[in-house]
Amino acid sequence: MVTRAVVTEAAVWEALAEIPDPEIPVISLVDLGVVKDVAVDGERVRIEFTPTFMGCPALEAMRTQMEDAVTALGGEAQVEVVLDDSWSTDAITPAGREKLRAAGFAPPTPRAAGATTLVQLRSKAFRCPYCGSSETRLDNIFGPTPCRSVRYCESCRQPFEQFKTI
Amino acid sequence: MPERSRADLLLELADDELILGWRDSEWTGIAPFLEEDVAFSSIAQNEIGHARALYELAATELGTDADALAFDRTPEEYRCALLVQRRLVPDWARTIARHVLYETADAIRIGQLVEHEDAELAGIAAKIEREEVYHRLHAEMWLARLRDEARYADAVEELWPFALGVLEPEQRPALAERLGRPEVEAVERTAPGDEFAALWSEMTTVRRSAPVGAQW
Over the stretch A104-115, which tens digit does the pLDDT of each residue have? Predict the structure, then answer.
């Protein structure tokens, strides 16, 4: 009889931390804060996962990758998508924010009390991920994916992508 | 009038978001400039994402799945407001008028759902609201640009009764107040018309042509 390795919660978290976001591969699913909970019962691994933006087409890809990661550990995954309001961009870890910035995506600003306003988007609160200048302007609220806006840095004259705060 | 069930409420909302998402996506590639191509495509993607979540919630109650609700019903079975059914391409003024009207109306009903006693519904509404904030900011920017244009004013005038029809009668005074317009007779949700039939036909083509049980 083959003895199967015991799957531990720590091992699952470690494996999930290796899975890149399909659309922004510099950051992992754990960095992104979308893995809500991991529960292990023998070989069965239950993962609670919450999407970022609701129309995100990467949802299925993420689910498959998480299942594959658990299978590789010798477990059997059950990935549950939780559609509640528990995710905001504040859930992105400090390490995740730094990885975003290093890759040229300005990390989201912390959520203020109340909804984002045009005055805020047009304020100097957004720093260029390349040169650090706060002399940046909003070019488009929307960008290449639902989670990004497009801004322009007046100092180093680079357009850059800004992770929206939600 | 019998009280609407939760599934009815969810289907109305989901149908509005799905069909508006389709109408917005008709600008992809042909908007007046690139930024708006990106914006309307992104807004469309969000709206369809909201529809998916709402259909999923309705589907668990109705014993079906989200795709079946989105694509397997007959045109007569959709409950979307007539405002979102209208094909407005290539009229930018009317498109922006609908955008401003719809987002304002939607903010009122989503705002109420966030407070709903049904925690599941309230949770999804709150998640939707996080994204809708950006739709409203986009609409607000365009309103500032077009508000003094006669074409825009005419478009709002024309679409106003349709906008009232997005909301329940008791929610309509709030919309009239927010927009500073008189409450007129609303164009109610009725069986979809010819414009919708053409959209439905296009929207469901792939689904209808695929063998039952096809996996994508």
Answer: 999 999 988 778
Secondary structure of A141-161 as H, E, C letters: CCCCCCCEEEEEECCCCCEEE
Question: Collapsing DSSP states into helix, strand and coil, what is residue A54?
Answer: coil
Domains of chain B, with CATH numbers? 6-209 (1.20.1260.10)
Nearest to B8 by CA among B44, B61, B50: B61
Please report, in angstroms and rounded to a whole number, the separation of the first and last CA atoms in chain B: 42
Phi first, then psi: what are they for A80, rounded to 5°? -110, 120
Residue B1's pLDDT band (cuts 50, 70, 90): very low
Cβ distance B38 to A144 less than 8 Å, yes or no, reads yes
pLDDT of A125 higher than 90 = no
The pLDDT assigned to A98 comes to 96
pLDDT above 90 covers a percentage of chain A that reads 79
Number of domains in chain A: 2
Q: Which residue range forms the structural domain that includes residue A119?
A: 106-163
- Here the CATH number for the domain that contains residue A63 is 3.30.300.130
DSSP letters for A66-120: HHHHHHHTT-EEEEEE--SS---GGGS-HHHHHHHHHTTEEPPPPPPSS---HHH
Which member of B35, B131, B137 has the closest CB to residue A53? B131
Look up residue B98 and give its two tokens.
Answer: 């609908």
> B68-100 pLDDT, tens per residue?
999 999 999 999 999 999 999 999 999 999 999
Chain B interface includes A56 (CB < 8 A): yes
* Residue indicated by tokens 């991991």: A38
Q: Which of B48, B57, B141 sits opposite A118 (nearest CB)?
A: B141
**B190-207, pLDDT tens digit by residue?**
988 789 999 999 999 999
Asked whether the beta carbons of residue A56 and residue B120 sit closer than 8 angstroms, the reply is no
Residue with tokens 């498959």: A64
In a domain, A50, yes or no: yes
Residue B138 has pLDDT above 90, yes or no: yes
Structure tokens at B96: 């922006």
d(CA A141, nearest CA chain B) in Å: 7
CB neighbours of B68 closer than 8 A, spacing ≥ 6?
B59
Q: Taking all residues of chain B, what is their mean pLDDT, rounded to a whole number? A: 95
